[in-house]
Amino acid sequence: MSDTAARAARPRSPMAPPRSFLWTRRIVLTLLTGFVLLPVYVMVSSSLKPLEDVSGKFEWIPSGVTLSPYADIWETVPLADYFVNSIVVSGAATVLSVAVAVLAAYAVSRHTFRGKRVFTVTVLSTQMFPGILFLLPLFLIYVNLGNATGIALFGSREGLVLTYLTFSLPFSIWMLTGYFDSIPRELDEAAKVDGCGPIRALFRVIVPAARPGIVAVAVYAFMTAWGEVLFASVMTNDTTRTLAVGLQGYATQNDVYWNQVMAASLVVSVPVVAGFLLLQRYLVAGLTAGAVK
């Protein structure tokens, strides 16, 4: 008897899902996979075509393949400078966001102080406001502060980092607070018995145990800063422009270099995709473990 006939003759478990459900799941997952991969295929295929082919009628199979768009993207606009600006700004915003969020979340999770509830509600309520609401106030603060003190925050990397902290810090504090709450307090007591103070217990006991949550916060902060467009388009100049804004340079008054736009978009996505794949298991654990005590 063949393997197929043996499986067909084998009695089905009463807990096994019906065959119709299995086939429906396969069809739905196949359609969702195609829906997700279709834009990626369009980007890859368009980035390998000459500009004339991209500007004309779209062809699913390129008639001619060229790698020149990947070489031209560095000459049409100063993409390397934008790349450096994005890495510096996103990296600095991530490091500062994680450092401040760890200290603030530890204080909220482990200590009782006056105004704790007000602080927690205030931090979380800032997520309800749209980002554009803060654009004009931050612009005026940076400009007036520069005129009064000479500290040039407007048009600088430092000013953009501070701007991104206003968005990433509230969510980071809220998320890490929930994760720290899931860590048994007995670990703190054991650290105190061993002679550790609060700060030493935090970095030697709590931080290693909360590594997945910290990684999830870091990924969130980095991705928020890496792909942000609104504030980067207003708060930067030609020397501090980031990738999200710099990609607009491929559109000129006479033409749009669509093949270079697609090629640059793929190149820009590499650091985020690579980091997500490397930290995927920490990210999933960090997003789920803090929700269950």
Query: Main beta sheet: strand number and arrangement?
Result: none
Global outline: globular
What is the straight-line distance between the termini? 52 Å
| Total number of strands | 0
Helical percentage? over 70%
| Mean pLDDT over the full residue set | 82
Low-confidence stretches: none
Query: Into which percentage range does the β-strand content fall?
Result: under 5%
* Helix and strand run: HHHHHHHHHHHHHHH
Write out key terms for the chains shown:
single chain, 293 residues, mainly alpha, 15 helices, membrane, transport, cell membrane, transmembrane helix, transmembrane
In short:
With 293 residues, the chain is an all-alpha fold. It contains 15 helices and no strands. It has helices spanning 3-9, 19-47, 51-55, 68-76, 79-110, 116-125, 135-149, 157-182, 186-193, 198-209, 211-226, 230-235, 243-246, 258-278, 280-289.
Can you walk me through this structure?
By secondary structure, this protein is mainly α. It is globular and about 70 Å long.
Topology (elements, then pairings):
Blueprint: H1 3-9, H2 19-47, H3 51-55, H4 68-76, H5 79-110, H6 116-125, H7 135-149, H8 157-182, H9 186-193, H10 198-209, H11 211-226, H12 230-235, H13 243-246, H14 258-278, H15 280-289
Helix pairs in contact: 2-14, 4-14, 5-8, 5-11, 8-11, 9-10, 11-15
InterPro entries: BP-dep_ABC_trans_perm (IPR050901), MetI-like (IPR000515), MetI-like_sf (IPR035906)
Membrane topology: Multi-pass membrane protein
Keywords: Cell membrane, Membrane, Transmembrane, Transmembrane helix, Transport
